[in-house]
């Protein structure tokens, strides 16, 4: 391993694969999450609208915040997987994955989904926030011994 700590290799990649499949299941299927008045989201929006302090939480804003929040773990796990030197790939892969989703929605799922630039921007923003959080965790996590140091410790005297 060059810049990645041995402890941060397998788990983030496995979680990243699982989380990528989760995002794909949410975004690449013809059926959208229930957003009608008799759904959980509809009831929550009614509750928000009933109070002056939360009336600003419209469906459009909740959707945008949800897109950002959905991609934060993606960027975070990708940054942990790629390590300190290449943490920014979490942001880049998040942007690429979001672009692929939007292209698929805009070409294959045109009857039930809508590809928007807003989704691309908010998803990418979320991935960037997650990647920065991952970098912060990597910086705070004590760096393990390098491969050379480990080999010296194991070498016979």
Write the layout of secondary structure elements.
Layout: H1 10-27, H2 40-49, H3 59-82, H4 89-107, H5 117-140, H6 147-154
Pfam families: VanZ
Domain VanZ-like: 17-134
Keywords: Membrane, Transmembrane, Transmembrane helix
Q: What's the oligomerization state?
A: single chain
Give the rounded overall mean pLDDT.
86
How many beta-strand segments?
Answer: 0
Radius of gyration: 20 Å
Which structural class do the helices and strands define?
Answer: mainly alpha
Q: Could you state the order of secondary-structure elements as H and E?
A: HHHHHH
How many helices? The count is 6
Percent of residues in helices comes to 55-70%
Distance between the termini: 24 Å
How would you describe the shape? elongated
Low-pLDDT parts are none
Instruction: Please state roughly what percent of the residues sit in beta strands, choosing from under 5%, 5-15%, 15-25%, 25-35%, 35-45% or over 45%.
Output: under 5%
Largest sheet: none
How would you summarize this macromolecular structure in one to three sentences?
This protein is mostly helical and 157 residues long.
């Amino acid at each position: 391993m060059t810049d990645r700590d041995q402890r941060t290799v397998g788990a983030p990649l496995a979680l990243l694969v699982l989380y990528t499949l989760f995002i794909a299941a949410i975004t690449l299927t013809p059926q959208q999450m229930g957003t009608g008045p008799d759904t959980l989201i509809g009831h929550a929006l009614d509750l928000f609208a009933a109070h002056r302090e939360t009336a600003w939480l419209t469906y459009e804003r909740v959707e945008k915040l949800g897109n950002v929040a959905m991609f934060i773990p993606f960027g975070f796990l990708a940054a942990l997987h790629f390590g300190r030197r290449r943490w920014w790939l979490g942001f880049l892969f998040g942007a690429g994955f979001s672009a692929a989703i939007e292209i698929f929605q805009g070409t294959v799922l045109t009857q039930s989904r809508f590809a928007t630039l807003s989704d691309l921007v908010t998803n990418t923003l979320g991935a960037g926030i997650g990647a920065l959080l991952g970098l912060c965790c990597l910086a705070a996590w004590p760096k393990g011994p390098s491969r050379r140091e480990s080999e010296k410790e194991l070498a016979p005297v």
